[in-house]
Amino acid sequence: MSVRLEKMGECILRLREERGYSLEELAGLTLSSPDELRKIESGTQQPDKMTLTLLSNVLNVYPDSLQNGEILTVLHNPI
Question: What is the pTM of this model?
């Protein structure tokens, strides 16, 4: 298991819990299975590009930062 995948998985797990999503809810929102998401969170599977993009959108973070195991929240300014 690579350190980068492990850090990314830890970030996804932390954000999922902070945002109040169950594993099943986040899997449904990102068009992945709970088993696939569990592997991503444990750092044993690299998400494909679509899953990474969907995870970033749902968790409101930048895809590049999530992929690097960092948490940089996307700020939405009201118009």
Answer: 0.87
* CB-count burial class (<10 Å; 0-12, 13-18, 19+) for 77: exposed
How far apart CA 43 and CA 64 sit, in angstroms, is: 16
pLDDT higher than threshold 60 for residue 11: yes
Residues 41, 12: contact at Cβ < 8 Å? Answer: yes
Task: Classify residue 9 as exposed, middle or buried by CB count within 10 Å of its CB (0-12, 13-18, 19+).
Answer: buried
Question: In the numeric block, which tokens belong to residue 75?
Answer: 């700020």
Tokens describing residue 70: 């960092």
Query: In this structure, what token pair is assigned to residue 28?
Result: 């449904």
Strand partners, 61: 73
